[in-house]
Amino acid sequence: MSIAVTHRGPAAAPVPPEPAPAPVNYLNVSHTIWSWLFTVDHKRIGLLYLGSISVFFVIGGIFAALVRTNLLMPNGAFLSEDAYNRAFTAHGVMMLFFFLIPAVPGVMGNFFIPLMIGAKDLAFPKLNIASWYVFMIGATFSGWAVLVGGIDTGWTLYPPYSSRASQSNVLPGVMGVFISGFSSIMTGLNIMVTVHKMRAPGMTWGRLPLFVWSLYATSLIQLLATPVVAVTLVLLMVERAAGIGIFDPSIGGDPILFQHLFWFYSHPAVYIMILPGMGVVSEVLTCFSRKNIFGYHAVAWSSMGIAVVGFLLWAHHMFVAGISFYAALLFSLLSMLVAVPSAIKVFNWTATLYRGSITFHAPMLLSLGFLVLFTVGGLTGLFLATLGTDIHLHDTYFVVAHFHFVMVGGMVIAYMAAVHFWWPKMTGRMYSDWWSRVASVIMIVGFFLTFVPQFIMGYHGMPRRYPNYPQEFQILNVMSTAGSSVLGLGYLLPGIYLPLSLFFGKKVGANPWSATGLEWTTPSPPTVHNFEVTPIVVCGPYEYAIGVDQMGRGLPEPPGAQDDPSHRDGSTGPSGPMKKETEVVG
């Protein structure tokens, strides 16, 4: 009997399973440059705006640094008077027309309006990408004007200096602003039509997130006011190029007419910049205090109130320009009136925080900073709306400080809050929680150090736009410049840790903040068409009290349950309404 012996080799290692393919989303669906340049996806267009305005923010910040550094010395540290004029004009043009105005509507509006109302895209996708190209063409004109010699008229472009006397690059600069205005109109039109026509089933007007309300009010201003400034700029270019008397009194024009037309747009434009920030803060404060918004309808309609009343008070910039006493009284009263809806918002935000379960992540810190800084900016605006004090404070650094408390302390801080709040949704990655908190505190502290001294200088009579000043103001100017360095550091830090998070940040789930909006029911980053199935909205946008999102599903554990929000899986509860009866808003 023989036994067959078989020799076996070493046991083969099991074949490892193939890694699961990454889910297709709007970021990885295509990687070619053409897929970005010719995209009609609202999310990608939002990122195009994000990249563009970030560049212009840096350019505007560099010119601000030049201005503040020059003011270290009473006779100017290193810039000539002419170079100083061009530096502060470049700062104003870049920051106002190419950062502040498109920041939230262009980036966050494009990205999140469809997601927040349950739509697949904006109403006019091709118009949307066209608006970005128009914006870039306008920015190219104005950027070229700044780089090849600059503009020395101030961002307000008052004639006859801008129309006849200035020897700088006024025409290409004005042309750039004129062209970019069309981009603003396109974006506003797209958002308004989208909100009217593309809301998901159940998304009534009374269930719209307050961010959507604020963008809707902003779009109304963009549509009605921007054409006015466009016509004004055309008339300015005609006078400068052809010598036809429109604004220059030496050739038959009226310079006060320019101020009326310019401020008819430019004062509502302040609300184009600040209303979206108010919408951001409404979203963040409710999420990180785990409370329903206090007075939803009051906050929503106050946005519309600001948009409408904002058209009626342009001449409060002209109290010393020769308007009649009775007209000045009327515009002073109307300027007081616009404080009412703003105060309603501040009261309701504060009431929302009352007895809330507050956590202090970066978006919340920045939103609390907005609440304080915007309130200071608004209250100091009352001094400028009052006839007597405005004559004393007109064209002083008090105006500069007030404007920056509203625009930078309000809008820029709110924009930073929006970026930190929605960054995990946009990228699928979480940034450094510790560094983001440090940066938020540095920004707020640096802002106070920069602009509080300017209130004091302005009250004591230091005029704005002057490169030289009396010796007695030097200590305050040094404090302001030192504060601007701290503020610059605060802006620099997000420029480091946010890009790094794209490579080293932890992946997050759909809802890392445990928020209630529809945008948090999609994967992070969202899929190409936003929703696999059309969502059905069953309740209001801020049902934190009963812990459900707008589709009636339970929320994941809230912020603060663990130290690091990236550790949360962000999963939501089972589909369908909870057993507990939901409070339907609207």
From TrEMBL:
Region called Disordered, residue ranges: 553-586
Major site of localization recorded for this protein: membrane
Location(s) in or outside the cell: Membrane
SUPFAM superfamilies: Cytochrome c oxidase subunit I-like
Keywords: Electron transport, Heme, Iron, Membrane, Metal-binding, Respiratory chain, Transmembrane, Transmembrane helix, Transport
Membrane topology annotation: Multi-pass membrane protein
Matching Gene3D superfamilies: Cytochrome c oxidase-like, subunit I domain
Transmembrane segments: 47-67, 87-117, 129-151, 171-193, 213-238, 258-281, 293-317, 323-344, 365-385, 397-422, 434-456, 476-498
Pfam families xrefs: COX1
Cytochrome oxidase subunit I profile domain mapped to chain residues: 28-538
Listed InterPro entries: Cyt_c_oxase-like_su1_dom (IPR023616), Cyt_c_oxase-like_su1_sf (IPR036927), Cyt_C_Oxase_1 (IPR000883), Cyt_c_Oxase_su1_BS (IPR023615)
UniProt keyword annotation of Electron transport present: yes
Taxonomic superkingdom: Bacteria
Family label: Belongs to the heme-copper respiratory oxidase family.
Protein name as it appears in the record: Cbb3-type cytochrome c oxidase subunit I
